Amino acid sequence: MTEQRGEAALRVVPGPMDINANGHIFGGWVLSQMDIAGGIMAARIAQGPVATVAIEGMKFISPILLGDVVSVYAREMRRGRTSLAIHIDVVATRGVAQTEVNVTSGVYTFVALDADHRPRPLPE
Q: Where does the source fall among the domains of life (predicted)?
């Protein structure tokens, strides 16, 4: 199943400051972890700095709870001249049984940047 998810790009444990009034982790916290993981992969592919330009198709499937270990998986989905789309899956590992819970997935689009912060062509 890991191959379908892509490469493990980030693993993190949210803390008490990341909880909302329902006792779940803030959705914005999850989005930022996805952006970090996608950015790591996109920068490696682009061989330099990138910027997030779009997020497509986000849907939260299950909440993340305090104590969950959050794994973010990323894989290249498509590539243009200056931009690339990274498909990102988030999985929470929960409890002593280490149950894996699919949390969300989405597609983040990044553009490669030159020294003047302008779009530049991706390497071959």
A: Bacteria
